[in-house]
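Justification of computing resources. Each target in the renewal requires a structure prediction run like the one illustrated here; the chain below, 412 residues long, is used simply to show the kind of job we budget for.
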Amino acid sequence: MPSRRAILAALGLGVAQFAGCGGRQSNTTTHSNTSTQSRTATHSPTPSDTPTATPEETPRNVQCDRRWDQRNVWTFGELQEFSAIAAGPTAVYTATENALFALEASTGQQRWRTPNEPIADSFHPSRLIVAGDWVLAVGRRHLVALDRTTGRQEWSFTAPGKEMTTSIMEQAITVVGETVYAGVVNTDRPSFEPENPYSRIYAFDIATGTHRIVREFSPDSQFPRYLTGDKRGLYCAVGGRLIALADDGTTQWNSRGVDDEYSMSALSEGVVLASDGETMTAFDATTGQQLWHDAALRGNVAVSDGVGYATAKTIPEGNGQVTAFDPETGTHYWEATTRGRGSPLALSSDAVFLSVTSSDGRFLTAFDSERGCRLGSFDFSSDSSPPVVGAGRVSAISRSGGTDTLLSFKLP
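Resulting structure tokens:
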């Protein structure tokens, strides 16, 4: 079966032939149930130049031949605030200030409930990660691994330092094989806390919690804001730099001289995608060479099956935008408008989900991942969390005055 990237590349070629040889910059506004299919051209780099993607017009409105049926939904509420949500192969996981829960994906029935208090004092998870047989719960200074089937705590780690000045960076956690990597920052400078370095990256055996220090950073280096990795190495956003690290912490390459404050990143088949919230830059994962730079891709980014998806703010209309693109070249496959600013993305095998905030409210919106057409939206009528995908469901938390509700829908 061809990959999604191959399918989109073929669609892009067809669109280019349809539009003719000469393209011009597109100013087409897409509607809620249509998308614009487009291509992005890059020019060859020179020693003083990084390729910059330039959109070309290849207009083509695409109607969806399927819709997202939102009637298959279950809800779960605890009459208090949910602080985190994640999805695994057969269950949806969530947390409150008092407990962690596993819910049967198909029905929402509670599988297990694990109180927070026995795990750690003042433990309030802000992020949950499902990895293999474990659920990782992250809360300020604590990293806890639980058996995802039973909810039993397997191991825990408390970052060294003072309660109010030390924290685990929840976006600086990644799992590579059987190893969990986590960035920890201590805001007390060494002159005040000489026994505690400014920040560290730790590596944990996911089954036992046995850990070691991978890298220490001085105050001049700032601290790891975002961390991702694969078998090639770790990629860490530190201040205005993107650093590639080997498993032993040695620097493989460094995007030295880049002024942007990278705040999010993703990996795709040897390409590191780094966003500062305003622009997207692609680096060769092995050498660190900049492959392309695109100001049109400047928000949350996610990758699936060799295709990248990113959110952006459309100016001056004030709407948002979701773009599908080739991570290696920056070529745009399609662009679709949203009603407003978009959340981090969640991807299924054939759909892209995000929560959209606009003056009209908060919506969970789904797009077809290959064609960019809109499959449907659900109105939360309140604030909501970013969505998560797993076990054939897309789930999100609806927030309303301290009484939260978890909603889980069957995938389109």
